[in-house]
Each structure stands twice: as structure tokens, then as C-alpha cells.
Amino acid sequence: MWQLRDGTHPVLTNEGGAILSERTGRWTYLTPTASAAVLFLLAGGDEDQAAGQYAAAYALPRHQAAADVRAVSDELAAQGIAGTAAARRRRGWRR
């Protein structure tokens, strides 16, 4: 299941969006289509479902929608803002 990491605060609309990371103190700004991809990822839980919704919303071929959603997902994961539930597991112990 795809989700934003703890300590992130999204502001997502149809006109674009931004995500604040508490860890870095930086905002990541999103285009309207990237914001839509994040909304679909958060609602659907995985990239395949999000790609289907994205394709329907923007009248795109399924393969193009999947590539667009994957690009947004990969970029946010690279920035440490989002990922799958399995990738979120912490290692070691906490106090």
C-alpha cells in the first residue's frame, strides 16, 4: 500500500499541491497532474489502481498513465516523502 511517510503534511488540490517534510523542513511542490496522481495513490493504495483512475481522469492510454503515476511515486520515494508500507518499516529499536 502506497502512503506518505510520517511527518509529511500534504496540501493537495485539483490545481496543484505541496507536501511539507518535517524531517527536512522543505516543501515539495506538485503540478496539477502530479497532485492528482498523489490523490489517486492515496485513495487507491497501489500504483495499478491509481493508474486506472489517472487514465480515466485524463483520457490517457493505460501505459502512459502507469508511467506518469510511477514517475511521481518514484520521485517522492527518492525524496523520502512516500513509499509502500513494507518500505516504511524501521530497523533497530526505539526508546
Automatic annotation (TrEMBL):
InterPro entries in UniProt: PQQD (IPR008792)
Protein name: PqqD family protein
